[in-house]
Amino acid sequence: MTSDAIVVENLGKRYSRRNPNRPRSIHEALLRGLRGLRSTEDFWALRNVSFRVPRGSMLGVIGRNGAGKSTLLRLLGGLESPDEGSITRNGHVGALLSLGAGFHPDLTGRENVFVSAVIHGLTRAEVRRKFDSIVDFAEVGEFIDDPVRIYSSGMQMRLRFAVAIHMQPEILLIDEVLSVGDQAFQEKCLARIRQIMASGGTIVLITHSLDQVRQMCDQAVWLHGGHVCGHGDPELTIEKYLDASNGQMSKKTTESQGLYPRPRQTQGDVRLLSGS
């Protein structure tokens, strides 16, 4: 049995978006020499992404909005196919990709538990055996027979997380949901994640919480513009990410205020200015 739960090699994902420079009239197109007539243009959300996640470990994926984090998680979960490269998953995947994902708003919590769990491979008999434990973990007992549309975002997250972990996945993909809910529930989720890892399970966590990555992850991947800019020890990767982010913010502040650093004067410059 391989020691890696996930192997990602030269991964790339391409999308199409509206071409903002498309001519708005035939006259404009003729003036441009018929350039830019395509209504869409391609862009790479991810390109040349490679890493490995050993069994029983936790990988944190960090980066600013639009860096390609959620695209990566959808590819890891099999919701989309790569345009380049490959993903090897060695184990059953449970995906918690977004708040309330997969829940039908008009179905009750009870109905959504059964539908979601069965879609992900459990039999109805297995769901019945696990049902009380799922509801107890989610702490939504008095609302379990109400439509999910009346649930708060925190209630949806708790129920979704409870279903995901009770499917006993070998690989669990989590997108930012641990930031929702009170401190006590977050601690309960983190404790269950540790149990999954202790039993040989593997976690991929996308988050803006750098503290969670520092405290829980064995390695981190920093994405920027669809590329891997840092990978390895969480503390070192986070340090590089913060240094780059602080540098970009300083540059933007300087430019927005019209403040540009004056060139350092040499002795020759001083003599020239003084006329000596």
Properties at a glance:
9 strands, three-stranded antiparallel sheet, Rossmann fold, 9 helices, alpha/beta, 276 residues
Question: Gist?
Answer:
This protein has helices at residues 26-31, 69-76, 109-119, 124-138, 153-166, 183-198, 210-216, 234-256, 267-274; strands at 4-18, 40-54, 58-62, 84-89, 93-96, 171-175, 202-206, 219-224, 227-232.
In words, what does this structure look like?
A six-stranded mixed beta sheet has the order 5-6-7-3-8-9, with helices on both faces. The chain has 276 residues and is of the alpha/beta class. It folds into two domains: 1-92 and 169-250, 3-Layer(aba) Sandwich (Rossmann fold); 103-168. Strand 8 and strand 9 form a beta hairpin. Helix 4 packs across helix 5 (153-166). The protein is built from nine helices and nine strands. Mean pLDDT is 82; it is low at 253-276.
SSE map:
Layout: E1 4-18, H1 26-31, E2 40-54, E3 58-62, H2 69-76, E4 84-89, E5 93-96, H3 109-119, H4 124-138, H5 153-166, E6 171-175, H6 183-198, E7 202-206, H7 210-216, E8 219-224, E9 227-232, H8 234-256, H9 267-274
Parallel strand pairs: 3-7, 3-8, 5-6, 6-7
Antiparallel strand pairs: 1-2, 1-4, 8-9
Helix pairs in contact: 3-4, 3-5, 4-5
- Report the CATH topology name of the largest domain: Rossmann fold
> What's the structural domain tally?
2
CATH structural architecture of the largest domain: 3-Layer(aba) Sandwich
Distance between the termini: 78 Å
Taking all Cα atoms into account, the compactness measure Rg is 24 Å
Low-pLDDT runs of 5+ residues are 253-276
- What proportion of the residues is helical, as a percent range? 25-40%
Shape: globular
